[in-house]
């Protein structure tokens, strides 16, 4: 049996360097089918995946740039709001100081008016008390002067008209003496 295989192989004088046409055709058809499958199905999937990844990367970069721009805008807005708030606080503080000064001035004015009113009332009360004291003192001095004059003269001065003249003259003399001593 070995002999038959060897003789069949020897009968053909085939060159090992020249390929068999049928083998070559089968290999080319297999390669073409495989090439078609790769080109039709595999390459588009790779292209689709590559495109999706490229789009995701570019979208991520765009989103990051957009987020960075939004963050910068928010920071600028925050800084502006902070500046506005500080300016508003300063304005309110100055208004409060002005209002405080106005209230203080009003209170001082009211206190001065109240003080003047109380002083005027006190002067009026003192003046009325002084008048009452002068009247009471005149009456008492008049009585004492009449009694004293009656003792000095030796007769009673019961006449009201006469005693009133004596008291008035006596008080007038006292006032003149006080006025002369004050000068």
Task: Give structural attributes.
3 helices; 183 residues; 91% helix; rod-shaped
Protein described:
By secondary structure, the protein is mostly helical. The chain is 91% helix and 0% strand. The chain is built from 3 helices and no strands. The longest helix is centred in the middle third of the chain and has 133 residues, at 21-153. The radius of gyration is 67 Å and the shape is rod-shaped. The chain starts with a helix and ends with a helix.
Helix and strand arrangement:
Blueprint: H1 2-11, H2 21-153, H3 160-182
Helix pairs in contact: 2-3
Percentage of residues in strands: under 5%
- The N- to C-terminal Cα distance equals 179 Å
Shape annotation: rod-shaped
Q: Can you summarize the main beta sheet?
A: none
Number of helices in the DSSP assignment = 3
Please write the string of helix (H) and strand (E) elements.
Answer: HHH
From the alpha carbons, calculate the radius of gyration and give it in angstroms. 67 Å
Uncertain stretches: none
Assembly of the depicted chains: single chain
> What is the SS-derived class?
mainly alpha
Helix content: over 70%
Brief account:
With 183 residues, the chain is mainly α. It has three helices and no strands. The N and C termini lie far apart (179 Å).
């Amino acid at each position: 049996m070995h002999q038959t295989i060897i003789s069949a192989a020897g009968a053909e004088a085939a060159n090992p360097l020249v390929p068999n046409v049928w083998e070559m055709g089968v290999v080319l058809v297999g390669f073409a089918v495989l090439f078609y499958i790769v080109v039709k199905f595999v390459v588009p999937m790779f292209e689709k995946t590559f495109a999706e990844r490229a789009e995701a990367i570019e979208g991520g970069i765009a989103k990051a740039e957009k987020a960075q721009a939004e963050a910068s805008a928010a920071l600028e807005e925050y800084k502006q709001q902070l500046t506005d708030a500080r300016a508003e606080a300063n304005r309110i503080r100055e208004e409060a100081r002005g209002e405080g000064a106005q209230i203080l001035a009003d209170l001082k004015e009211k206190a001065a008016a109240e003080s003047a009113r109380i002083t005027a009332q006190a002067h009026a009360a003192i003046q009325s008390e002084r008048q009452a004291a002068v009247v009471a003192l005149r009456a008492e001095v008049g009585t004492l002067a009449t009694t004293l004059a009656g003792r000095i003269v030796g007769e009673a001065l019961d006449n009201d008209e006469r005693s009133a003249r004596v008291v008035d003259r006596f008080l007038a003399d006292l006032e003149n003496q006080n006025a002369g001593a004050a000068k």
